[in-house]
Design a protein that fits this description.
The complex is a heterodimer of chains A (439) and B (469).
Chain A: E1 11-14, E2 20-25, E3 31-38, H1 52-59, H2 71-78, E4 82-87, E5 92-99, H3 103-115, H4 123-142, H5 149-157, H6 172-177, H7 180-190, E6 196-202, H8 206-217, E7 240-248, E8 254-261, H9 267-280, H10 286-294, E9 298-305, E10 313-321, H11 327-344, H12 348-365, H13 369-383, H14 392-398, H15 401-411, E11 416-424, H16 425-428
Chain B: H1 2-9, H2 11-14, E1 32-35, E2 41-46, E3 52-59, H3 73-80, H4 90-99, E4 105-109, E5 112-120, H5 124-136, H6 142-159, H7 163-175, H8 190-193, H9 198-208, E6 214-220, H10 224-235, E7 258-263, E8 269-277, H11 286-298, H12 303-311, E9 315-322, E10 330-338, H13 342-358, H14 363-375, H15 377-380, H16 384-397, H17 403-412, H18 416-426, E11 433-438, H19 442-449, E12 455-458, E13 464-467
Parallel strand pairs in B: 2-6, 7-11, 7-12
Antiparallel strand pairs in B: 1-2, 3-5, 3-6, 4-5, 8-10, 8-11, 9-10, 12-13
Helix pairs in contact in B: 3-6, 3-9, 5-10, 11-14, 11-18, 12-13, 13-18, 14-17
Classes of the chains: A alpha+beta (439), B alpha+beta (469).
Chain lengths: 439, 469
């Protein structure tokens, strides 16, 4: 395919208060997306306040100086828009997709809560959202089989003092401890224009959008600078095996096998993501072919990268055992497959398969204004350059079969593995940790 | 305070809420139909925004037409289509699809078998040929069919430990008469799936997966002539007539309001389902019911979500919905609440159902729902996949070709009185079934304390263990 480099038009401007603005026009559908990334996530939480970045995200939907409680949702929905927000280890995003005629509303709402959130904050709203988030924790973690993997895997893979080590959703105790003072401090420290990227994508007029952005966001004061995170750098490999066995209320075992992997945006990241796809994307992947189809050790087996942009990323294999298959047998199956990949490398056909899948998935994702905006915000936040979105496919296509083979040899060997295994509670009493004898 | 100062500085610009600009026109993509001599329908919607094409086959062979004793056969057959043809094995087919960049998805819903793939437009003909091959000449290798059957059995085993899926499955089983196909999940149960073999798949394919039951929906960067010619080339010489099947789908298992506790000892939450059998998709009240449901529990700013989440903080989220099928699918309110507030949450859900029946909504509340459904319409159809899905719904439900062109007017025409009228007609608080997957001690005691009706205690497998007075 040609012409991919210009798939997404990109224009940028920076306001005097530091807000970085990305504009991407597309007039094919009368829809516009507003997407804000704040460069703050659970990594920025202080000890004793796990889960606070996410609880804070909930508070941003509780009104601001000129918007009532729950009115944010109501105004966007009345305008015919969709909206949400999400919190990740090192960023928090807020987004609306609106009919093109409603761009001003989306920008105004985001500016009001960036500029004047605190006048609307009350103890009652905090208490309500604290309970909502505790129920979110129960629903997604405590009352879900394997639900704790989201906190156990980072805890296993990052050292205790590392900003990515602790739970993103947070502990019940820490959620209980969060106060209005914490809200004030977190807002003043992190929710500032110079710590944010604002992307507008879709059907809008360039001059009018810039006028609105300057009018709404221009008067907001710059922040005092974002405090540095704790030390992020880590050795590129674990330096051996790590493992944890979790007896849980689950019907069948499930095994995660993680590898340290190069950070999002690096050349080596593109190699890693193709390697992960060879392992675990699609029914033509090695994991599916070997563990699901041929050996029937697993009912599902996939692989993916976390896409972390700081410290190290993680490449993760995730496989659920067929009934009757032990965690040991499943792990043995995964390890033998990874050993083969690591020692014998990959083929040109495999590289062609995953390049085609990634190409299609990337282009397909560009259809939605919200998805385009989110990708632009990601590149702008992590790498300071939204135009890198148009380098994504060329960089994937430049990865050679040899690159992937070399990556597998360096990163997937026995000196870089962390295994997290869930087993049904009853059977764990007399069982031993999976493959405990593996060096 | 710094932040007050911040807002004051910007007050002149920010306080005034912006009015919308002039609305920009939107039209659902224009599409064309062609019918091949063998009865197969081709629907083409040229959408040349990006160089990609979605192909979606929809075959009138969903789970609702299968024999109840073989529940899960349509699902198993749909999955097995991609696992081998007269020419190639399953691994090779997966490889060939994925070399085109298109992963093939096959599934069965209540009212159709669906095969979906998206590829770059240069690869359209190759992808359509492969789709035709798996649709027309599957070989159903015994080893792969047995594996897929065993994977379904594994899924059912896992479901017993997963409260959300378990609540959905138990709710359907409790709602519908056991003779109804709707009482069992689309994918079937241990009893019905366990004995299925490749012969069953071959038989189902031979009887049901036929050209006259099939529509090929093609959306994206393609001209009509190219799409129809490719369909003619790949499907034109396919033959056979599908068997007509009678259905007996809807019928309640119980007349009166009953409460049900599915045991999950020690669960920190109760996963709740409250509802009853609803109405079929094609119904004169459809648009009024959609708007009524949006007000009741269909959007974030709905009564049920604002009550249970934002007012009472019982839950992370609560919603209501009608499951639209050819016959009457469930109406259900779904949420998960902390165990200690199980009874209080049920009471609030029932009071909201009573409330929307008791009086028409305010004009503002109505306009929130209608302007949302009206305004969000173009956002729903940004992708070729979403457009193809919408076009396949026309086929499944026999909706008119101007359905999407008139949709927004139909939504805007719903009045406050219509909302109350359809709430009275189609919500029935006296025959709701209340299902909680939760702690049998604490959540069970709470359900009994409601004094709304008998409480039945079940195991996750569906064995009745106890009944309160």
């Amino acid at each position: 395919m040609t012409g991919a480099a210009s798939l997404v038009p990109v224009d940028t401007l920076r306001l005097e208060n530091g807000l970085f603005v990305v504009l991407s026009e597309d007039h094919t559908v009368p829809v516009v997306a507003v997407n804000l990334w704040y460069h703050v996530g659970s990594a920025n939480e202080r000890p004793g306040r796990t889960g606070f970045a996410h609880l804070f995200e909930h508070m941003l939907f509780q009104g601001s100086a000129h918007v009532g409680a729950n009115e944010h949702f109501e105004l966007v929905q009345r305008a015919g828009g969709t909206l949400n927000g999400s919190t990740w280890l090192d960023r928090t995003n807020y987004y609306e997709t609106l009919p093109a005629s409603q761009l001003a509303l989306g920008l105004w709402l985001e500016a009001d809560r960036m500029g004047a959130l605190l006048p609307a904050m009350t103890q009652q709203k905090l208490d309500t959202q604290r309970d909502v988030v505790k129920n979110e924790r129960r629903w997604t973690v405590d009352n879900q089989p394997y639900g704790t993997w989201w906190e156990k895997l980072p805890a296993l893979c990052f050292p205790e003092e590392h900003p990515f080590h602790h739970s993103l959703i947070g502990s019940m105790e820490d959620l209980s401890a969060a106060s209005l003072e914490d809200v004030t401090e977190f807002f003043r420290t992190y929710y500032t224009p110079d710590n944010a990227v604002l992307t507008i994508a879709g059907d809008f007029d360039r001059q009018e959008a810039e006028r609105l952005v300057r009018a709404y966001f221009g008067p907001i004061a710059r922040g005092g600078g974002r405090p540095a995170l704790g030390a992020m750098d880590l050795p590129p490999r674990f330096g051996g095996w790590r493992r944890e066995l979790v007896p849980d209320d689950v019907a069948v075992p499930r095994v995660f096998l993680a590898f340290r992997s190069p950070v999002f945006g690096s050349d080596a990241y593109y190699t890693a993501s193709l390697c992960a796809a060879i392992l675990g994307t699609g029914r033509g992947s090695r994991l599916h072919r070997t563990l699901v189809r041929d050996r029937q050790l697993a009912s599902v087996a996939t692989a993916f990268t976390f896409d972390l942009a700081k410290g190290t990323d993680l490449l993760v294999i995730d496989a659920t055992a067929r009934p009757g298959v032990t965690a040991e047998a499943l792990e043995e199956g995964i390890v033998s497959l990874v050993d083969t990949l690591s020692t014998a490398g990959v083929s040109d056909e495999e590289r062609a398969r995953v390049t085609a899948l990634e190409e299609m998935s990337f282009i397909s994702g560009l259809q939605s204004a919200g998805e385009r905006a989110d990708r632009l915000s990601r590149f702008a936040t992590y790498l300071g350059e939204p135009r890198l979105v148009n380098e994504h496919l060329p960089r994937l296509r430049r990865v050679t079969t040899k690159d992937i083979t070399a990556f597998a040899r360096e990163q997937l060997g026995p000196d870089n593995r962390a295994a997290l295994a869930y087993v049904p509670r009853e059977s764990s009493a007399n069982g031993s940790p999976p493959a405990a004898s593996t060096p | 305070m710094t932040d007050v100062a911040r807002s004051t500085a910007s007050a002149s610009e920010v306080t005034g809420r912006p009015a919308p600009g002039p609305p920009r026109p939107y039209r659902f993509p224009v599409f064309t139909r062609a019918r091949l001599a063998n009865g197969l329908e081709v629907i083409v919607a040229p959408v040349p925004r990006l160089p990609l094409i979605t192909i979606r086959l929809v075959i009138d062979a969903g789970a609702s037409i299968e024999d109840r004793a073989q529940a899960g056969l349509a699902h198993l057959t749909a999955l097995a289509l991609a696992e081998g043809t007269l020419r190639a094995g399953g691994a090779q087919l997966a490889e060939e699809f994925e070399q085109l960049g298109g992963s093939l998805s096959t599934s069965a819903s209540w009212d159709g078998v669906h095969l979906i793939t998206s590829v770059l437009s240069t690869r359209f003909e190759a992808a359509l040929s492969l789709l035709a091959e798996v649709t027309r000449t599957p070989s159903f290798p015994a080893r792969e069919v047995d594996r897929l059957r065993d994977e379904r059995l594994a899924e059912l085993l896992e479901l017993r430990a997963e409260p959300r899926g378990l609540a959905d499955e138990r709710f359907a089983s409790i709602l519908y008469d056991q003779r109804s196909r709707y009482a069992l999940p689309e994918g079937g149960t241990e009893d019905t799936v366990g004995s299925l073999t490749r012969e069953h798949c071959l038989g189902f394919h031979d009887r049901q997966i036929r050209p006259r039951a099939t529509s090929v929906v093609i959306v994206g960067d393609v001209e009509i002539e190219r799409a129809v010619a490719a369909a003619e080339r790949t499907f034109g010489d396919w033959s056979g007539v599908p068997q007509q099947v009678g259905r007996t789908m809807a019928g309640p298992a119980r007349i009166g309001r009953t409460l049900h506790l599915i045991a999950r000892p020690g669960a920190p939450q109760s996963e709740l389902r409250v509802g009853h059998i609803g109405i079929p998709r094609v119904h004169p009240d459809y648009f009024s019911v959609v708007v009524m449901n949006a007000i009741l529990g269909g959007v974030f700013s709905s009564r049920i979500n604002l009550n249970l989440r934002e007012r009472n903080a019982f839950t992370y989220g609560a919603s209501s919905g009608f499951d639209w099928r050819r016959d009457a699918g469930p109406f259900v309110v779904s949420t998960a609440v902390a165990t200690g507030v199980t009874a209080a949450a049920v009471r609030e859900i029932l009071s909201e159902i009573d409330g929307i029946r008791a009086a028409p909504p305010g004009v503002d509340e109505l306009s929130l729902a209608t302007s949302y459904l009206d305004g969000v319409f173009p956002i729903r159809f940004e992708t070729t996949e979403a457009i193809a899905s919408a076009l396949s719904s026309l086929q499944i439900f026999g909706l008119p070709d101007d359905y999407y062109d008139t949709y927004r007017d139909n939504v805007r025409n719903v009045a406050t009185d219509d909302v109350q009228r359809v709430a009275l007609a189609h919500l029935a608080p006296d025959r709701v079934q209340i299902v909680a997957v939760g702690d049998p001690e604490e959540a069970g005691r709470q359900l009994e304390s409601l004094a709304l009706g008998p409480v039945l205690y079940w195991t996750p497998e569906g064995v009745l263990t106890r009944e309160s007075a």
